[in-house]
């Protein structure tokens, strides 16, 4: 401990390690707590990790939306309502995740089209 920076970082991190044996550490909370005490490359890495957590939440939300849309009549209305509550940055993230999910579903749909083809 050679400087106040290290002490502040440890003070922010210690509460996240006070968990029962076998209990998961809240990594996202830990990264959010120590982020203000980092700089440069450290902060850049933490920001990437926090974006990963945000993307994971967005993908879960998209899966939930897809499940709800399969049960309801007009899925576009629900998407529009949810998108209206998001910031422009979050809307961009949702668009990116939607594109990724669409690309992941394309091979399945392509296989279905081949099965339905008719030989002449």
Descriptive keywords:
0% strand, 73% helix, 120 residues, mainly alpha
Plain-language structure description:
The radius of gyration is 21 Å and the shape is elongated. It is built from 5 helices and no strands. 73% of the residues lie in helices and 0% in strands.
Q: What is the overall shape?
A: elongated
Number of helices: 5
Number of strands: 0
State the order of secondary-structure elements, H for helix, E for strand: HHHHH
Low-confidence runs (pLDDT<50, min 5 residues)? Answer: none
Work out the radius of gyration: 21 Å
List the SSEs and their pairings.
Layout: H1 4-13, H2 27-34, H3 40-71, H4 75-84, H5 88-115
Short description:
The protein has helices at 4-13, 27-34, 40-71, 75-84, 88-115. By secondary structure, it is an all-alpha fold.
């Amino acid at each position: 401990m050679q400087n106040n920076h290290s002490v502040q970082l440890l003070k922010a991190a210690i509460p996240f390690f006070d968990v029962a044996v076998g209990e998961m550490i809240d990594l996202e909370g830990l990264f959010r707590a120590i982020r203000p005490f980092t700089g440069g490359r450290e902060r850049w890495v933490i920001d990437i990790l926090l974006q990963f957590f945000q993307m994971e939440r967005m993908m879960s939300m998209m899966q939930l939306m897809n499940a709800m849309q399969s049960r309801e009549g007009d899925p576009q209305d629900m998407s529009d309502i949810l998108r209206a509550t998001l910031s422009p940055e979050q809307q961009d993230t949702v668009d990116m995740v939607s594109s990724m999910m669409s690309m992941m579903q394309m091979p399945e749909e392509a296989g279905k089209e081949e099965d339905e083809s008719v030989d002449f």
